[in-house]
Amino acid sequence: MCDLSFTVVLLVGLTGLVFGWRVLTRRHAIPCPPELIWLLENRAMERVAGSALLLERAGIVPGMHVLDAGCGPGRLTIPLAERVGERGSVLAVDLQEGMLSRLKARLEARGITNVRTLQAALGSGALPAGAFDRALLVTVLGEIPDRVNALREIQHSLRPGGILSVTEVFPDPHYQSRSTVRRLAEQAGFAVRETSGNWRAFTINLSGPAEGAVAGSSE
CA 149 → CA 8, 124, 153, distances in Å? Predict the structure, then answer.
């Protein structure tokens, strides 16, 4: 009986912690700290949202110019740089200097030179206009206090015909449901182009109004 009571208290406590965390992120930017990189880079994450899968969903090909929005330590940045090649480029943006320092060390160790880093908050106006063919926002949207403004800035940074690929993975504390991503995207002026995956790990590709059309969906 005592064990059951402890389990119930623990579950209630964890639920309250996650709820409180989500409330705080609506008011303040609280990204995953560098000390918790292992939450982003592990076998479980690779199984449900591996870099190769997400690059395929986003349609990344050689020569593209790509925005890795909320890049962290570079789980996707490095595969992106390798995929786009010398004719392409990647802008890796993160709010935390600690994450960017880890990314820079990895880039230097691999001799990768087609990546530029930028320490900035998404939605702050720091992104260049009309610069990217693709933008990736992977398990980051829920960390941003003003999500619609950040999405608008990313849209402004895309070239005509460019696509923003948003991925959410459960049980990330900042997890955004598919309906929430759609609602926020529409408020920002995006149109849903295609979706893939399921509620545990899904990707929604978004395009500007002129290019927006529902091309397909897979569960």
Answer: 39, 9, 6
d(CA 163, CA 193): 9
Chain-centre distance of CA 189, in angstroms? Answer: 18
Confidence of residue 36 (pLDDT cuts 50, 70, 90): low
HSE, CB side, 13 Å, CA atoms: give it for residue 25.
Answer: 19
Distance CA 68, CA 158 (A): 12
Fold of 31-217: Rossmann fold (3.40.50)
- 83-103 tens-digit pLDDT: 999 999 999 999 999 999 999
Give the Cα separation of 91 and 169 in Å (integer).
23
Please tell me the total number of residues recorded for the chain in this structure. Answer: 219
- In this prediction, residue 92 carries a pLDDT of 98
Could you tell me the residue ranges of all domains in the chain?
Answer: 1-30, 31-217
The answer, as to whether pTM is greater than 0.90, is no
Q: Tell me whether strands 201-207 and 191-198 are parallel, antiparallel or unpaired.
A: antiparallel
Residue 149, pLDDT > 80, answer: yes
